[in-house]
Design brief:
The strands form three sheets. Strands 2-3-12-9-14-7-6 form a seven-stranded antiparallel sheet. Strands 1-11-10-13-8 form a five-stranded mixed sheet. The longest helix is centred in the first third of the chain and has 14 residues, at about 30-45. The chain has helices at about 30-45, 75-90, 165, 190-195, and strands at about 1-5, 10-15, 20-25, 50-55, 55-60, 65-70, 95-100, 110, 125-130, 135-140, 150, 155-160, 170, 180-190. With about 200 residues, the protein is an alpha+beta fold. About 20% of the residues lie in helices and about 35% in strands. The protein has four helices and 14 strands. A hairpin with a 2-residue loop joins strand 4 (about 50-55) and strand 5 (about 55-60).
C-alpha cells in the first residue's frame, strides 16, 4: 500500500505505462485559487442527483454530478479558467469536463475505469481536486500488485493515461472522518466522432 506525503510537493509517478501512466501533480493551482473555484462551482453549478441500477434495483448515485462541453456558451468562468490551467499543465486539448460533488465522507465512487469508446485515442484524463482532501484508491485489474492510496489535495491534478484505463481501476472510498465537501473536475478529450 502506498500513501503520499501530505507535505511532499514533488510530482509522483504512480503507475508506469507506454503513455506516461498515472501521475499525481500537487500544487498545480494555488490554495487561494482552488478555494475560489471551489466556492464558485459549489454555488454556481446546477448539480444533478442521478440514479442507476445496482444489484437489480435502482439506487441513488452517492454524489452529485454535472457536465459541460468546454466550448459551451454557459460554461461557468471558474471552469473555463481551470480548463486553461489543466490544458497547459498536461498538454492535452481537453474538450469536456465532468464534475462530481462529494458532499461529505459518505459520498463515494466505486472502483472503475473510464469508458474509452468515446474518448480520443491515447488522450489522457486529468482530475483537478477542489475542497476537502479525499483518498483515491488505484488497483491493478489483474489482481497482481499492491493497492495505491493517494490523498488528492485541493489544487492537485491526477493524470491518467488512456492505456491505464485497461489495466487499472480507480475509486474514491467512503471515509467517515471526512466532513467537508470536495469537487472533482475530470477533464477528457472526446473524439470528434463521439461529439458528432
Amino acid at each position: 500500500m502506498y500513501q503520499n506525503d501530505l507535505f511532499d510537493p514533488a510530482p509522483l509517478d504512480l503507475i508506469d505505462d507506454t503513455e506516461s501512466g498515472i501521475r499525481y501533480l500537487p500544487g498545480v493551482v494555488s490554495a487561494e485559487t482552488a478555494q475560489a473555484w471551489f466556492e464558485q462551482a459549489l454555488d454556481g453549478v446546477i448539480w444533478s442527483n442521478q440514479r442507476r441500477m445496482m444489484y437489480e434495483r435502482e439506487v441513488d448515485v452517492p454524489r452529485l454530478m454535472a457536465h459541460f462541453s468546454l466550448d459551451a456558451a454557459d460554461l461557468p468562468a471558474p471552469l473555463m479558467q481551470a480548463a486553461g490551467q489543466v490544458r497547459s499543465t498536461v498538454g492535452a486539448a481537453f474538450n469536456s469536463v465532468g464534475l462530481n460533488l462529494y458532499r461529505d465522507g459518505n459520498d463515494s465512487v466505486a472502483p472503475h475505469n473510464d469508458h474509452t469508446k468515446a474518448l480520443a485515442l491515447k488522450a489522457p484524463i486529468a482530475i483537478l481536486s477542489l475542497g476537502a482532501t479525499r483518498r483515491m484508491t488505484i488497483r491493478a485489474k489483474s489482481g497482481k500488485g499492491r493497492t495505491l492510496n493517494v490523498d488528492l489535495h485541493a489544487g492537485s491534478v491526477l493524470v491518467m493515461s488512456y492505456a491505464s484505463q485497461f489495466t487499472h481501476n480507480h475509486g474514491i472510498p467512503k471515509m467517515s472522518e471526512v466532513t467537508g465537501p470536495r469537487i472533482s473536475l475530470a477533464f477528457r478529450c472526446f473524439s470528434d466522432k463521439a461529439a458528432g
